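Quick start: read one record
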Amino acid sequence: MNAIFITVRSNSSRLPNKCYKKIKDKHVIEYVIDQAKKSKFVDSIILCTTKLPEDNLLCEIATKNNINFFRGSEIDKLDRWLGACKEYNIDFFTTADGDDLFCSHELMDLAFLQNENDSCDFIYGNNLVCGSFTYGIKHDALKKVCEIKDTEDTEMMWVYFTETNLFDLSPLKNVPDVYKRNDIRMTLDYEDDFKFFKTVIEKMQMETFDTRDILSFLDMNKDLIDINFYLENKWKSNQITKTKLILKEKK
C-alpha cells in the first residue's frame, strides 16, 4: 500500500496554530490535503498528528475531507509515522508537511513510481523548489530507524537515513525542469510566509490549482516571491541548529 502522510500539529513556537489559519474560508492544512488528493498512485492519505487535545480539530478536518488520520507522539515524528504504517498497512509513503500548501502531487507520484522500479529505502528531493517535495520512505527502513535512534525529538529526521550508512538512498528521479530552482520559498513557518500564501491564492482567483500553476503565476508576478524569500536562510539555519543524530550505543 502506498500512502501520503500529511504531518501536522498545532503547536508551533514561531507561528502558533498556523495550521488553523484560513485563506478564502479554508484552513491552510486543507490546501495540503487538496494537493495530496490529486495523486494518481496513492492508496491512502493519512493526516499524522498528535494525541494532544489541541489537535482534535485537525482530526475533524481530516474526517470532513474524507481522509484518514493517525494520532501519535507529539515530538517523535518517526514513531508517529511508524504507528500510521502499522495501523494502515503501509509499505511505502511520501511525506507532505502541513506547512507546504503548494506541495506537488506530480513529484509525489514520481516517488511512488520510483519505489516500484528501484525499491530504494529513502527518496529525497535534490535542489527542488522549497516546499514542493519532501521524502519518500519505505516502511521497513523506518522501522529500522526507530530501532537505532536514541531520542524522541525527531523533528529533523532525515539524518537517521542519510548519515547512518544503513540505507539505500536516491534523489527523486525524472523531475521536470520546472521544479529545479532555488529562488522560491513555499513553506509556512513565519508570518510573512502566511502573507505569501494568502496573497498568491487570493490573486490567482482559481478554485483549484497545482504546483505548476503556482510556479507559472509566480513567474508572471515575481514581486510576490519577495514577500517571504528573504526568510529562506533564517529557516535553513534554524533547521541546521535543530538537526542532531542520536543513536543507541552498540552492544
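The radius of gyration is 17 Å.
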